[in-house]
Design goal:
With 341 residues, this protein is of the alpha/beta class. The chain is 41% helix and 17% strand. It has an eight-stranded mixed β-sheet with strand order 3-4-2-1-5-6-7-12, with helices on both faces. A two-stranded parallel ribbon has the order 8-11. The protein has a two-stranded parallel ribbon with strand order 9-14. Helix 1 packs across helix 9, helix 4 packs parallel to helix 6 and helix 8 packs across helix 10.
Length: 341
């Protein structure tokens, strides 16, 4: 298939593209490479896919990979509807995987407009391009943050999610609503994926795994919010990629209802892990003890996440299998090599 993956220099996007390329799909990656976090890490991911920094810095120009004959990259923004429309018209994608978004719950308190631009305006542009270019299937990133103040666990896609507590969460809920509308009106498939706390090699510097490892190695205190009384459905990147790629390749089971145009799934580890246990796994791997700075709950944060992934298991034989200890060891090994520490 020919597949567009937006958010190509991002953590999940990079890994998804690599898996698709190894499976011999033709992929076009798109990313604006914004400075929400260290752009050097983003350029390093793209370099792994065979795109030099010099080429990746060019705007609105498709460049070829030196490593993969089936990969090309364009630095552009999904809010640029003219460039996006031309790209869809020229490439005629079979499937679109929209992972581009302004990420981060806490940053949405500081810069709300960035979320409206990318997560709402940009997403409408993606929907419009899929509509007019007869794209067979749109797979897009939602988030576990949509569950907001829900107390019932594990979180199910059947739960009411009308009470988000951050603009980031509200923007992701709006994506689900807009995708439903377009699937209904224009008769194309859309699948939303509510990601749960993804971690692993090449991970984001603003996420707990990265922040904790960096601070502990530098013998600096780590900020532990809600005084450690938090639980997260930490999900290793390989398990996430397995699920995303199975959906993109349409490798569903006999239980899947192919008549449904709109689908929504949780994608997580199907297990909630205490934050203090996660920190302990990092300490054990580093053979260092963390200096914990116990902090109050952050605005927009939730105490516990836990994904009910039964429907993804039923429809796509999804099988997350990476234990926390293994995932943490893989990340720390990558971190030490990448940063030469």
């Amino acid at each position: 298939m020919k597949i567009l993956v937006t958010g190509a220099s991002g953590f999940i996007g990079f890994h998804v593209i690599k898996s698709l390329l190894d499976s011999k799909h033709t992929v076009v990656g798109l990313d604006n490479i914004n400075d929400y976090y260290d752009i050097n890490l983003k350029y390093a991911r793209i370099k792994e896919l065979g795109i030099t920094r010099k080429n990746a810095e060019q705007f609105n120009s498709i460049v070829k990979s030196k490593n993969y004959t089936n990969f090309r990259f364009i630095r552009s923004d999904i809010t640029d509807d003219n460039t996006l429309g031309n790209l869809f018209e020229e490439e005629r994608f079979d499937v679109v995987c929209n992972l581009a978004a302004q990420a981060g719950v806490r940053y949405s308190l500081e810069n709300p407009k960035a979320y409206v631009d990318s997560n709402i305006v940009g997403f409408v542009n993606i929907l419009e391009c899929c509509r007019h270019s007869q794209v067979e299937h749109l797979v897009y990133a939602s988030s576990s943050s949509v569950y907001g103040m829900n107390k019932k666990v594990p979180f199910s896609t059947a739960d009411n999610v009308d009470h988000p507590i951050s603009l980031y969460a509200a923007s992701k809920k709006s994506n689900e609503l807009m995708a439903h509308t377009y699937s209904h009106l224009y008769d194309f498939r859309s699948t939303g994926l509510r990601f749960f706390t993804v971690y692993g090699p090449w991970g984001r510097p603003d996420m707990a795994m990265f922040l904790f490892t960096k601070a502990i190695l530098n013998k600096k205190p780590i900020n532990v919010f809600n005084k450690g009384a938090m639980e997260r459905d930490f999900t290793y990147i390989d398990d996430i990629v397995q699920g995303v790629v199975r959906i993109l390749e349409n490798k569903h089971t006999s239980s899947y209802d192919s008549s449904k145009k709109y689908n929504l799934y949780n994608i997580g580890n199907n297990k909630s892990v205490k934050l203090n246990d996660f920190i302990e796994a990092i300490e054990n791997e580093l053979e260092m003890v963390a200096d914990k700075n116990l902090m109050p709950m952050q605005p927009g944060d939730v105490e516990k996440t836990w994904a009910d992934v039964d429907s993804l298991i039923r429809d796509y034989a999804y099988s997350p299998s990476t234990p926390i200890k293994t995932g943490v060891a893989e990340f720390i090994n990558w971190y030490k090599n990448f940063y030469k520490t």
